[in-house]
Amino acid sequence: GRGGANPTLECMGDWLLNLPLPWMALLVFLAIYLATAAIYFVVTRLAVDARGRAFKAVSPGMLPPLGIIFGLLVGVAVQVWNDFDRAKAAVTTEASALRGIVLLAESVPEDERQKLRQVVNRHIDEAMTHEWGSMAKRQMTLAPLPTHLIEGLKVTLAVNPADESQKTAQREIINELRRALDARRQRIVVSQSSVSVVKWAAILLQGFCALIAIAMVHSDNRLACVIALTIFATGVAVSVLLIAAYSRPFTGEISVGPELLKQVMATERALDRSPPQ
Measured between alpha carbons, how far is 203 from 100 in angstroms, rounded to an integer? Predict the structure, then answer.
């Protein structure tokens, strides 16, 4: 939960995750390489006399298990890709439902049609101007009611169908409104997801343990040590960058935006420009 999170860590995380991807990559790689350089210098300085023999006694056979454990820990963070896909699916479903409402509204009386269009426009405007910013900061909750969609349900239920086609349209609009309500709930729930501090600590600690073990095993051959450390550090940096870039579905340069909802407004404008039948 967020209750026990350190506010300073939260602010640092928000700052990093909102950076453009090239700058985020630069900082991540720089931090990992600096930490790796520190490990190299400490281990090689300590690798003398008895300590050097002790370092060389460390079996190279432990390196593959350490790498596998690191890979498994990175795999634990695979939730970030699942959450990102869930966020995209929720926004796609919501946009599809809202577009369906706009199209079906063409079959209901003029007054209700205009009211439904206004409801959809106000909902989209609220989502883009308020909800998206709150979701990016993981501050959006289910407490605020989707008043515009609820109003849309009231408007639709108040329609007195004149024929079977209007009755069918009324029923389908209600279904689409329910679908939009559920999709909105899903995107708000997914917006709360992130990689916890515990997971980040475990991934980084395991990566640094593997780097220390590599440095100890190759402490008698500095060139081989540098090459091995650089290769593994690059893998650690790439893993950290991927997880960080996708860790919050609505935050940062790689995020789910409201573009599909904007397209619903474009659909409405196209209907307005279309000639009457």
Answer: 44
